[in-house]
Amino acid sequence: MLAIGIVVDDAIVVVENVERNIEEGLSPLAAAHQAMREVSGPIIAIALVLCAVFVPMAFLSGVDRPVL
Question: Which residues constitute the domain of residue 52?
């Protein structure tokens, strides 16, 4: 479920950025390229941080293990 949330959140960020670029006068294709240049770094960083936080939880055992 977490992966679905990450994908949806990242898609929303990209779409909002594309819409902003279109409002600034770029063509849809140019707006998409510009949006990805602007947000690809932060999106990758967010995904890496979330993986660093949640992957270790998969290896927990016992009563303290959260339900993933």
Answer: 8-57
Contact 33, 16 (CB under 8 A): no
Q: Please name the residues in contact with 6: beta carbons below 8 A apart, sequence gap of 6 or more.
A: 46, 47, 50
Query: What tokens does 36 get?
Result: 């990805």
Tokens of 43: 């999106």
Q: What is the pLDDT of residues 13-54, one digit of tens each?
A: 999 999 999 999 999 999 999 999 999 998 899 888 888 888
By residue count, the chain amounts to 68
User: How many separate domains does the chain show?
Assistant: 1
Give the DSSP H/E element, type plus range, for residue 67.
none
Q: Collapse the DSSP code of 61 into the 3-class scheme (helix H, G, I; strand E, B; otherwise coil) and give the result.
A: coil
